[in-house]
Amino acid sequence: GAVVSQHPSRVICKSGTSVKIECRSLDFQATTMFWYRQFPKQSLMLMATSNEGSKATYEQGVEKDKFLINHASLTLSTLTVTSAHPEDSSFYICSANSADYNEQFFGPGTRLTVL
Amino acid sequence: AQSVTQLDSHVSVSEGTPVLLRCNYSSSYSPSLFWYVQHPNKGLQLLLKYTSAATLVKGINGFEAEFKKSETSFHLTKPSAHMSDAAEYFCVVSSATGTASKLTFGTGTRLQVTL
Predict the structure, then answer these.
(1) Cβ pair A35, A94 in contact under 8 A
(2) What φ, ψ does residue B62 adopt, rounded to 5°?
(3) How far B51 CA sits from the closest chain A CA (Å)?
(4) Which residue from A71, B1, B16, B91 lies 20 to 30 Å from B24 (Cα-Cα)?
(5) Which residue in A4, A32, A41 is closest to B100 by CB distance?
(6) Tens-place pLDDT, residues B55-93
(7) CB-based contacts of A52: which residues, under 8 Å, 6+ apart?
(8) Residue A13 and residue A115: Cα distance in Å, rounded?
(9) Distance between CA B112 and CA B85 in Å, rounded?
(10) Residue A62 in contact with partner chain B when CB distance is under 8 A
């Protein structure tokens, strides 16, 4: 199957700073990527759908100015958490749509801790 | 609107005994249904998917699931549990068959396998 990577795997930052998380499809092109967040012992909640070359579509309740998504190429989408606060601490997971495999592939996740 | 309900948050079985993880779905359309597994520090992995073909779906690692429209269920089973099956399992529904469709995750079932 195809591989999706995320970087960094974990990050700790101070409150008020911004953090960028990268999601890459390593061996396939993905016109659509998805960003999720997962709180401890809870399910994945879709935050936004990222389409290459266009603006992301955010789910209800997700602040687009706080969670900036850029999908500049067919293999890379980035999520920037701006002015992070402790309540933003979570596990962020991306997935990439592969038309060849008719499947979404998930990255290993990024654990963000905001102090 | 679509949703899935995983009826058990935690299931414990002995190695070599059958596994049953229960999932009920709700969807306004003919759903596509998936089971994903999440091992610690690893990305979500697709176990199997139902997309309106055969109602009994066979997946990887000996898992299978049966789509029952009359019961709106998609339970995951395995005849004989292995220690390596211990993980978090998510039942997922999509309202469309395309891989770029939004996925709605259940709350997850943690499978524990004991000796």
Answers:
(1) yes
(2) 80, 5
(3) 11
(4) B16
(5) A32
(6) 999 999 999 999 999 999 999 999 999 999 999 999 999
(7) A30, A31, A32, A71, A72, A73, A74
(8) 6
(9) 8
(10) no
d(Cα A20, Cα A16) in Å, to the nearest integer?
13
Q: What are A74's two structure tokens?
A: 């067919």
Say if residue A98's pLDDT is above 60: yes
Q: How far apart are CA B60 and CA B75, in angstroms?
A: 15
What is the Cα–Cα distance from B110 to B115, expressed in whole angstroms?
Answer: 17
Predicted local confidence at residue A1, as pLDDT: 66
Q: Which of B44, B61, B102 to mutate to test the interface with A (most CBs of A within 10 A)?
A: B44
In this complex, which of B36, B43, B106 lies closest to A4 when CB atoms are compared? B43
The CA distance from B113 to B25, in Å, is 26
**Interchain CB distance below 8 Å, B43 and A107:** yes
How far is Cα A81 from Cα B22, in angstroms, rounded to an integer? 35
Instruction: Please give the helix or strand (H or E) that residue B62 lies within, else none.
Output: none
Tell the burial category of A35 from Cβ atoms under 10 Å away from its Cβ (0-12, 13-18, 19+). Answer: buried
Residue A84 has pLDDT above 90, yes or no: yes
The token pair that represents B3 in the structure block = 């949703």
Q: CA angle A60-A66-A67, nearest 5°?
A: 70
